[in-house]
Automatic annotation (TrEMBL):
GO terms for biological process: cell redox homeostasis; cytochrome complex assembly. This is Thiol:disulfide interchange protein. Coiled coil: none annotated. One of its GO terms (molecular function) is protein-disulfide reductase activity. Residues 1-25 form the signal peptide. It comes from Parasphingorhabdus halotolerans. The keyword Protein biosynthesis does not apply. The lineage of its organism: Bacteria, Pseudomonadati, Pseudomonadota, Alphaproteobacteria, Sphingomonadales. One of its GO terms (cellular component) is plasma membrane.
């Protein structure tokens, strides 16, 4: 897929707006105005049992706005439907009209720029009794211009009437036009091949059928490069299309062949051999329609990427990152302001931060692509990683305190405390790794953008967070006025080294607490025994150093065995699920476990709902809970207003919560939502106060506007 900076800036700006202005992103019928409003219309208000009736979602985009086909192309989101139907009524698959192409600087979108209708057939069973037939559906879609995208949704309903077999049924003539824009079935299957990164499709189409600017819209993702030019040849009764392949498929493919405005054929193609033959079909340009001018959006890119960098910069103020920064501060103090050393180490530190942040992002994208429901900081949902990180931080702390030195031992702590650029690189790597539990201002929108952006653009965002995290040390290295204030090396460095062991031990205590929350006190006690064993080995190693004995290889082997034993001793998934339930003890603000079913039930009963999503390893989440959520003032205000509280605990992997976060443009926690009766949710800021929450029950509109 071709990546373009202009489209990257447009999509990222769209996600920033979607996260920052949720009241405009999601609307209920009859409330705030939508940019692509939907109306639910029935072909007939009366339907006979045993028959079907067609419904239409009539979409009317405002000027400059557009909606998306079921496969949106390189970017965008197709339409979704969540039906609430009476017993005996089933909804079929949605039928979409022939879409249009919208190419913005190499990013291909499959869209509708004018009014269009999506049709769905409802089948009414023979045993459905005569009388009213209430139908409701919650639908979500993405509305975009060339510069802005807004997720939208609506809850639509209509009441039909089941009548007797002989009763008259009148039809809405508008559905004739709606159906005229649907692609017609092609009588025969086509054939496709993928060879040497070239995709070819042979379509049986009589030469008497006129085609105008033909284009093939494929439904399966990952087979063709959407933005590549499609070459079309006519060979007798065959139409042959050639374009760039992105992948192969052993299964048949489906799609729509567009042959003119609002005209096309639905087709299925089987894998086979296809050669490019015949003569080119005359058409204007390359068959790709472009929307909007090629105006400069460099400022949008700077703002978007700047948000990611600022979010990473603010991570330096978070308590989970500060202990690692102490290591870097000590290396700067040792350098004593030497320009060459400071710049070299700052660049190495930055490389470590950016590489790990990007690699974590790449793993995250890969897991999502494989179907796993994961989000940012996914690695800290695994107690094995936490145990290893606990051992590493503890070892670093004892090293800084002077228990042992590290000329021989092959541990991660050696990497972060050795001299030179290698030590700076691994210090940066560790800083990026432990920074993931923290989510600060600007980060939610930046990370949320990675959900819908192309992979290359998403990786740029992860790298931008890394640059922001490393920015203070880059400024020290390359701004002489700052560097000149660095203290000169001296005897004070030994005392400083022992002092910064304290935040390391505090970090270890935090990891012990987190591990206990995940695996329970019994398993934690066993884990601490292994950790004690590792500490005794390091103590033994340090004693040997004082006597001039070489114990490095033995120490390394024993440490590996101790760590492996600790990992194997950790409990399984079932035990951790029991522990998660036990963690839901009484709190100041009582809550129920989050589920979409429970949320829908509460909303149906018109009860206000506060839903929050947290994790034990999320420092921002815990700070908000201590400062605002779990406060008596909040509990009293919510109780007086009869607010139901749902809590989504993401400490351990939970696909339901992961998917819900993605629906709201978030890649991680925290996320705070307030549902006032009859209104769409207000997404609250990531930094909460008691006033933010208590104002919700008094004036939710004011709270939304404050954002």
């Amino acid at each position: 897929m071709t990546f373009d900076l202009r489209s990257f800036s447009l999509m990222l700006a769209a996600l920033f707006m979607a996260c920052a202005v949720p009241a405009h992103a999601q609307n209920k019928l009859g409330s705030k105005e939508l940019n692509v409003p939907a109306t639910l219309v029935a072909e007939s208000q009366r339907v006979q049992a045993g028959r079907s009736v067609t419904l239409a979602f009539v979409m009317k985009p405002k000027p400059t706005w557009h909606g998306y086909w079921e496969n949106p192309g390189d970017a965008g989101i197709g339409m979704s439907f969540d039906w609430t139907l009476p017993a005996g009524v089933t909804a079929g698959k949605a039928s979409y009209p022939v879409p249009e192409t919208l190419l913005i600087s190499g990013i291909m979108n499959y869209v509708y720029e004018g009014e269009y209708a999506v049709l769905v057939n409802l089948v009414v069973a023979e045993n459905v009794s005569q009388g009213p037939l209430p139908i409701s559906v919650k639908s979500e879609w993405l509305a975009c211009t060339d510069e802005v995208c807004v997720p939208e949704q609506d809850e639509l309903s209509i009441t039909l009437e089941v009548v007797s077999k002989g009763a008259a049924v009148s039809l809405n003539s508008a559905f004739n036009d709606y159906r005229a824009n649907l692609p017609r079935p092609l009588g025969s299957n086509g054939t496709f091949s993928v060879k040497n990164d070239i995709f070819r499709l042979s379509i049986p189409l009589p030469k008497s059928v006129a085609v105008e600017t033909p284009y093939f819209f494929i439904k399966e993702d990952g087979v063709v490069d959407y933005g590549a030019t499609q070459k079309v040849n006519r060979d007798g009764d065959l139409l042959i299309i050639e374009t760039t392949a992105r992948g192969d498929s052993a299964e048949p493919i489906n799609g729509v062949l567009k042959i003119g405005p609002h005209m096309g054929f639905m087709l299925t193609a089987d894998s086979g051999e296809v050669e490019m033959s015949g003569v080119p079909v005359a058409k204007g340009g390359d068959g790709n329609f472009t929307g909007g001018g090629d105006q400069s959006n460099a400022s949008l890119l700077l703002i978007a990427l700047g948000g990611a960098i600022v979010g990473g910069l603010l991570l330096n103020l978070m308590p989970c990152v500060f202990p690692i920064l102490s290591l870097k501060a000590m290396s700067l103090a040792k350098a004593g302001g030497d320009e060459g050393i400071v710049r070299r180490d700052a660049l190495a530190y930055t490389a470590g931060v950016v590489v790990v942040a990007t690699v974590l992002g790449g793993i995250l994208l890969g897991l999502r692509a494989s179907g796993a429901a994961v989000g940012w900081a996914f690695q800290l949902q695994d107690p094995r990683i936490i145990f290893v990180l606990l051992a590493l931080v503890t070892a670093i702390g004892f090293n800084l305190a002077g228990l042992f030195e590290l000329p021989n031992i092959s541990m991660g702590s050696k990497l972060t405390t050795r001299e030179g650029p290698a030590g700076s690189f691994w210090t940066g790597a560790l800083a990026a790794f432990v920074a993931t539990p923290c989510t600060g201002p600007f980060m939610a929108a930046a990370l949320g953008a990675t959900i819908v952006l192309p992979p290359i653009a998403a990786l740029i965002i992860f790298a931008g967070l890394g640059v922001g995290l490393a920015l203070p040390f880059l400024l020290i290295a390359f701004v002489p006025a700052i560097r000149s204030r660095l203290p000169k090396p001296g005897a004070w460095l030994d005392s400083f080294r022992k002092i910064i062991a304290v935040p390391m031990f505090l970090t270890a205590i935090g990891l012990v607490w987190l591990l206990g929350r995940q695996i329970g006190t019994d398993a934690l006690g066993l884990s601490l025994l292994f950790l004690l064993g590792a500490t005794l080995v390091l103590w033994w190693f340090g004693g040997g150093q004082m006597k001039g004995l070489s114990r490095g290889w033995v120490t390394t082997g024993v440490m590996i065995a101790v760590l492996a034993g600790g990992i194997l001793a950790l409990p399984g998934e079932e035990q951790m699920a029991v522990q998660k339930t036990a963690n839901s003890s009484s709190t100041t603000l009582p809550s129920e476990p989050f589920s979409e079913e429970r949320l829908a039930e509460l909303r149906t009963s018109n009860q206000p709902v506060f839903a929050y999503f947290t994790a034990d390893w999320c420092i921002t989440c815990k700070a908000n809970e201590a400062a605002a959520v779990q406060r008596q003032e909040t509990a009293d205000a919510f109780a007086a207003a009869n607010v139901a509280v749902l809590m989504g605990d993401w400490t351990r992997p939970d696909p339901v919560i992961s998917n819900f976060l993605e629906k709201h443009g978030r890649a991680g926690v925290p996320l705070y939502l307030y549902y006032a009766p009859g209104q769409e949710p207000v997404i609250l800021p990531q930094i909460l106060t008691v006033g933010t929450l208590t104002d919700l029950v008094n004036d939710p509109i004011k709270t939304a506007s404050r954002k």
